[in-house]
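If your schedule permits, I should be very grateful for your opinion on a structural question. Kindly check, if you would, that the fold set down in the tokens agrees with what the sequence suggests. Thank you for your consideration; the sequence and its tokens are set out here:
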Amino acid sequence: MQKEKVTPARPVRKPRADAERNRERILEVAKEVFTRDGAAASLDDIARRSGIGNATLYRHFPTRDDLIEAVYRSEVEKLAAAEHRFAAAMPPLAALRAWMLLLIDHISAKKLILPAMDTVAGGSMRLIESSRSLIHTAFLASVHRAIASGDLRSDTEPNDFVRALVGIFHTTAQPGWEPSARRIVDILIAGSRSAPKQTSARPRTRQK
């Protein structure tokens, strides 16, 4: 009598959704801790506050540099995703303004974790440069959409918007830079808006 083959049971794997939730929780807590403690932030503290063991933390992020880079990259990806979300929910010009203001918030938040970013190999500039294209692409897409809708003049140069805000971001060490940057957003938009269409008056009919 031929013996029936028994298929070995497959090991039960933890759902990927749980792993992703753990990863997102680690990034959320790590951002808070790096903001508070800067270069002195403790990975043990991050693991404890995330409600996970150290092994789980290191499984997701083998080194401290990996975690810091992931925190910054995650914030950039959220910023880029917001451009798509605003575009789907708002008129083009309102979406552009909302996203530019969010970009200012992003730069402000980046300043808070900059001391931690400066500790990674290559320094904070390496992290910023590696994500620059993602922000630049989102920025240009938002401006182009406002031009295509007719809200901005057809001769508007999208990179002028980029250069103007980048110039402001070089002044973040000075007090009052953030309110100034928000005013610049409205100045840029107002100066680039299309002129309102003039309705031609109907010629008067001569009475006989």
About this structure: Residues 64-89 form the longest helix (26 residues). The chain has a mean pLDDT of 87.
